[in-house]
Task: inverse folding
């Protein structure tokens, strides 16, 4: 219990320090309230919109869009990473295509996607896939191809096929790298959807921020700020959930199985 409290104290202290600096800058008038509103005004507006329920619709819509695109990107990254692990020679057929699109900023594709797909859900889904696929793919490949050769030799001793070695040895070994890729990819997904919703959407958190800036410039500092606040809050929740998954018994089978194999050596 004490260990958990100590682990939670450091992030809370960091958040508290940021809020304190924010308050002092606003209090001393170093920046105008239009540029940086005080924390009290942002929180008042935030809780007012929570109580009225008007913000939940935008959060829900953005969340569904992110989950849809993120799921597709993870499925593609996992399948290509598995193909690369089971059939290393297959990488030559698609690796150059992956590297090409990896260096293309996803948001720069918005004009082309609008021309090809229109201003609809397909455009936003593709943007999220492009943003989140590559960090997940690179980490998944790293985990699958970086498996300890001694563990693979143990699998050969047991007469495992390629598929069974992958499921029983490579996949547990790569679980940490897969989670790292998921964490990075999910963060990229939120950044991409906010940018896409600012350009090609009539709902969502990105549209809410842009709408507040264009239609109500006098209160943009409040509306835009709690829109950014929602994104930050969702990112914090994502990190907490992935840390819990990584640290708890869900992946206990990974270390137990690998330790058993290493004892055989």
Result:
């Amino acid at each position: 219990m004490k260990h958990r409290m100590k682990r939670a104290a450091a992030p809370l202290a960091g958040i508290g320090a940021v809020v304190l600096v924010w308050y002092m800058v606003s209090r001393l008038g170093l920046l105008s309230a239009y540029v940086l509103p005080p924390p009290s005004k942002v929180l008042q507006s935030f809780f007012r919109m929570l109580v009225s329920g008007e913000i939940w619709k935008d959060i829900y819509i953005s969340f569904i869009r992110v989950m849809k695109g993120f799921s597709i990107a993870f499925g593609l990254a996992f399948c290509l990473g598995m193909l690369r692990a089971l059939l290393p020679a297959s990488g030559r057929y698609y690796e150059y295509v992956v590297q090409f699109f990896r260096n293309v900023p996803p948001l720069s594709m918005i004009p082309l996607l609008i021309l090809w797909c229109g201003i609809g859900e397909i455009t936003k889904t593709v943007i999220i896939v492009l943003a989140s696929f590559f960090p997940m793919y690179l980490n998944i490949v790293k985990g699958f191809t970086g498996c300890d050769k001694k563990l693979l030799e143990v699998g050969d001793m047991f007469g495992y096929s390629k598929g069974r070695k992958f499921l029983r040895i490579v996949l547990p070994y790569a679980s940490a790298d897969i989670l790292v890729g998921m964490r990075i990819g999910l963060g990229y997904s939120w950044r991409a959807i906010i940018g896409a919703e600012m350009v090609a959407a009539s709902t969502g958190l990105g549209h809410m921020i842009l709408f507040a800036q264009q239609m109500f410039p006098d209160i943009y500092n409040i509306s835009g700020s709690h829109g950014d606040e929602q994104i930050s809050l969702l990112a914090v929740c994502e990190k907490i959930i992935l840390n819990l998954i990584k640290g708890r018994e869900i992946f206990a089978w990974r270390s137990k199985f690998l330790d058993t194999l290493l004892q055989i050596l």
In short: The mean pLDDT is 77.
